[in-house]
Design a protein that fits this description.
Shape of chain B: globular
Helix content of chain B: under 10%
Largest interface: A-B, 29 and 23 residues
Largest sheet of chain A: 7 strands, mixed
Largest sheet of chain B: 6 strands, mixed
Distance between the termini of chain B: 37 Å
Oligomer: heterodimer
Order of helices and strands of chain B: EEEEEEEEEEE
Low-confidence stretches of chain B: none
Structural class of chain A: mainly beta
Radius of gyration of chain B: 13 Å
Chain lengths: ~120, ~110
């Protein structure tokens, strides 16, 4: 077990709705990254938060937004859901954003289905 | 061109076989390299980091060729439990952007 938890496990939404996914980092980790993994694909980097600030972003539109809290837990918010947003959403925590060798530990993911 | 490309697979091998996975990356400034393993409907888990000098962990050997921008993973004496998807991962300078390949599926059969 990595110590990274995510909620909910599964979620079904309809197109146009908004969703919030949650992640609790491993104890002592100050960095969290979010990924989207479509079926049959590798995880795609959405963004990373380091000490409550966005530290980098992948090629995702602004309707994907996030927060990191003082206890380093995190949220991913997606507005105006589209059918293509259906995927497994993974969060990963690590100790320090600036160390490229730092290992990321993944949570079990939230499986989002948009109808 | 994708930033990280892997063999499309799937690979179907018998127990005991040796199997090699290849991965290429496009950003020459990439700093860190990893192989992750992902079981069906589970989260990715770190298998091993990849260093220029090459590194070995039991039956697994990883190699990095910076000049060719190429990473490999060799699995010797395959076990049924090795069946999974293997993801090649590249991190940029500063470490904030992590790029995963699409993965290569391995089936090991008795």
């Amino acid at each position: 077990e990595t110590g990274v938890t995510q909620s909910p496990t599964h979620l079904i939404k309809t197109r146009g709705q908004q969703v919030t996914l949650r992640c609790s980092s491993q104890s002592g980790h100050n960095t969290v990254s979010w990924y989207q993994q479509a079926l049959g694909q590798g995880p795609q980097f959405i963004f990373q938060y380091y000490r409550e600030e966005e530290n980098g972003r992948g090629n995702f539109p602004p309707r994907f937004s996030g927060l990191q809290f003082p206890n380093y837990s995190s949220e991913l918010n997606v507005n105006a859901l589209e059918l293509d947003d259906s995927a497994l959403y993974l969060c990963a925590s690590s100790l320090a954003a600036s160390y490229s060798t730092d290992t990321q530990y993944f949570g079990p993911g939230t499986r989002l289905t948009v109808l | 061109r994708k930033e990280v490309e892997q063999d499309p697979g799937p690979f179907n091998v018998p127990e005991g076989a040796t199997v090699a996975f290849n991965c290429t990356y496009s950003n020459s400034a990439s700093q860190s390299f990893f192989w992750y393993r992902q079981d069906c409907r589970k989260e990715p888990k770190l298998l091993m980091s990849v260093y220029s000098s090459g590194n070995e962990d039991g039956r697994f050997t990883a190699q990095l060729n910076r000049a060719s921008q190429y990473i490999s993973l060799l699995i010797r004496d395959s076990k049924l439990s090795d069946s999974a998807t293997y993801l090649c991962v590249v991190k940029s300078t500063g470490g904030f952007k992590t790029i995963f390949g699409a993965g290569t599926r391995l089936f090991v059969k008795a």
